[in-house]
Design brief:
The protein has 433 residues and is mainly alpha-helical. The chain contains 16 helices and 2 strands. The protein has a two-stranded antiparallel sheet. It is globular. 32% of the residues are buried. The chain binds protoporphyrin IX containing FE (HEM). Residues 59, 61-63, 65-66, 69, 122, 125-126, 129, 132, 134-135, 139, 142-143, 146-147, 149-150, 219, 223, 226-227, 230, 235-236 line the site of protoporphyrin IX containing FE.
Length: 433
């Protein structure tokens, strides 16, 4: 006899394993949507989705990043069809793409410059989040997912740069992989394991190629989580005030979509101008010299977007501590939602924190400049000052300012914020809409 046989029907809980139905659509779309709810998700999360009506052009960079990512993958796919990941053939295969493959030059220049523009967009996206306090409750997880994406972007850009197998590819790969040797005891072993050999060579290039692809797709996966989280918590906005009713919001489509489109077009215009007129401006000429293990370039410099972190690495005299400082300079961003505990989100109402954020952005550019210079004399001093401010911003200024700053008077709602702005009671950047 079954163990359930003496129970009555009412004692069993109903289950709903079959969820067919519930679509607002009819016809073929309704039929599909009843079984795979993509159309109602699109309606709910895009057509009807409400966003604060104060969003300025800085909020277009999330969409711009998505476009960059999509085109990086498309151009990467085309490059991958002609590229050869071997130490003997890699350099020549890239030259073949440039000269012999139909529109190969365009595809390669697009991919190369998109990588740079991806970083331009991500830095603006991060600075926006810092200025308007987008990392604060309830968006901490979005912020943490963003930092994870940023680490993966760094990894994939570094790996991609090794692939053309020019002098900077080779020596950059050697310097950066050698950083692991700073780890006590197991460091040297890790480096040999990473290389799959006793120096950077064929085995390393092959795995760099595989990982470059893999991490690009990992980024896509985490961006999906990033956007799902965004749709749970909703967008922050320049006022830092949560929307209360429809006076505070507009629907994402067509209002934000059309505004984002303008931002995207301007971004694409600048990108195309650089790609067409100065495609190698953001790169290093030495990477057009085939990799030569016997000749070290005079200055090994990373791509421009890594320079601030390279400056932090070199500001510390000890190799291991330098590596730790470099990695923590990014990881520490993850603690910001807890180090900055001010109840006010947007810097528009935080007169002191606003200055700290401006200085932080200036510090980023100072470190970028220092990273491109030789690590000696005044550059070393500037690098150290920049590094101290970088860490002080998080560890000292964020909690201290949260404790002692007196925020400016704040409106009750986004609608009132716009009213105050119109009356000139609030000073913000006007060019950003
Ligand atoms: C591939 C890279 C990325 C993509 C495609 C992406 C995409 C997006 C999109 C579409 C939005 C909504 C629109 C907007 O607010 O701009 C957004 C918001 C946000 N992102 Fe990203 N993101 C990326 C990287 C990052 C990084 C590296 C960080 C931080 C370290 C970050 C932090 C945030 C935060 C905090 C928000 C909420 C902003 C707000 O509501 O004010 N994202 N992201």
């Amino acid at each position: 006899m079954s163990e359930y046989s003496d129970k009555k029907n009412e004692e069993f809980s109903p289950v709903h394993t079959n969820k067919v139905g519930g679509s607002p659509y009819t016809g073929v779309i309704g039929w599909i949507d009843n079984r795979l709810p993509i159309f109602r998700i699109f309606k709910h999360e895009y057509l009807d989705f409400q966003v604060p009506k104060t969003l300025n052009y800085f909020w277009s960079f999330g969409g711009i990043l998505m476009i960059c990512l999509i085109f990086l993958i498309i151009t990467g796919l085309a490059l991958g069809m002609h590229y050869k990941p071997s130490a003997d053939e890699a350099f020549d295969s890239v030259e073949k793409i440039m000269r012999d493959v139909n529109f190969g030059w365009l595809i390669r220049y697009a991919h190369m410059n998109l990588a740079s523009f991806f970083f331009i967009a991500v830095y603006l996206h991060i600075f926006r989040s810092l200025y308007y306090g987008s990392y604060k409750e309830p968006r901490q997880l979005m912020w943490l997912l963003g930092i994870t994406i940023f680490f993966l972007m760094i990894a994939t850009a570094f790996l991609g740069y090794t692939l053309p197998w020019g002098q900077m590819s080779y020596w950059g790969a050697t310097v950066i992989t050698n950083l692991f040797s700073a780890i006590p005891i197991v460091g040297e072993g890790i480096v040999t394991w990473l290389w799959g050999d006793y120096s950077v060579g064929d085995a390393a290039l092959n795995r760099f190629y595989v990982l470059h692809w893999l991490i690009a797709f990992l980024i896509v996966g985490i961006v999906v989580f990033h956007v799902i989280a965004l749709h749970i918590v909703g967008s922050n906005n320049p006022s830092g005030i949560e929307p209360k009713d429809t006076r505070d919001t507009v629907s994402f489509s067509p209002f934000t979509t059309s505004k984002d489109l303008v931002g995207m077009l301007v971004f694409i215009l600048i990108f195309v101008a650089v790609m067409m007129f100065a495609p190698n401006y953001l790169g290093h000429p030495d990477n057009y010299i085939p990799a030569n293990p016997m000749v070290t370039p005079a200055h090994i410099v990373p791509e421009w977007y890594f320079l601030p972190f390279y400056a932090i690495l070199r500001a510390i005299p000890d190799k291991l501590m330098g590596v730790i400082a470099m990695v923590s300079s990014i990881a520490i961003l993850g603690l910001l939602p807890w180090l900055d505990f001010s109840k006010v989100r947007s810097s528009v109402f935080r007169p002191i924190w606003k200055q700290c954020v401006f200085l932080f952005v200036l510090d980023f550019f100072l470190l970028m400049y220092v990273g491109a210079m030789p690590a000696e004399g005044i550059y070393l001093v500037l690098g150290r000052i920049g590094t101290i401010y970088w860490f002080a911003f998080f560890i000292i200024l964020a909690p201290l300012v949260s404790m002692y700053e007196k925020p400016l008077p704040m409106p009750q709602s986004i609608n009132e914020y716009m009213d105050w702005k119109k009356k000139g009671k609030i000073k913000t950047f006007n060019f950003t809409g």
